[in-house]
């Protein structure tokens, strides 16, 4: 039979692997404002951290908006016709951030994009340098919850 120390070691190893998964988050673009015109997505993005495994959630009125993933040049020029990598139009689109690097999203209505309805982000690796203070609290909360679950499980053995 395995000793308590061996079981604890296995539980800690599992927790270490699971922490990045537990920290993955659904990030609603624009928070309560959603995906709309007359909102500063550049400022919003600068106050958020986008990690590998997170999901971007675009919420909007599909009768007047859409989301188009584009490249950097097409982002700058609001080119949604030839530059579209992928189009979304459900009004509640969930986009998994499954690779690191820069990502660009614009409204499919060119005039809306020209007026600022566009989002540029950088997706960071799951294990990255310390985040800004507002995101830091969320990360620490997830890590704390995972650690506490492991400790409670170990004490029950």
UniProtKB/TrEMBL annotation:
It is found in: Membrane. GO terms for biological process: response to symbiotic fungus. One of its GO terms (molecular function) is electron transfer activity. Keywords: Copper, Disulfide bond, Electron transport, Glycoprotein, Membrane, Metal-binding, Signal, Transmembrane, Transmembrane helix, Transport. One of its GO terms (cellular component) is plasma membrane. Residues 1-24 form the signal peptide. CDD domains: Phytocyanin. It is a single-pass type I membrane protein. It comes from Zingiber officinale. Its main location: membrane. This is Phytocyanin domain-containing protein. Residues 25-125 form the Phytocyanin domain. InterPro entries: Cupredoxin, Phytocyanin-like, Phytocyanin_dom.
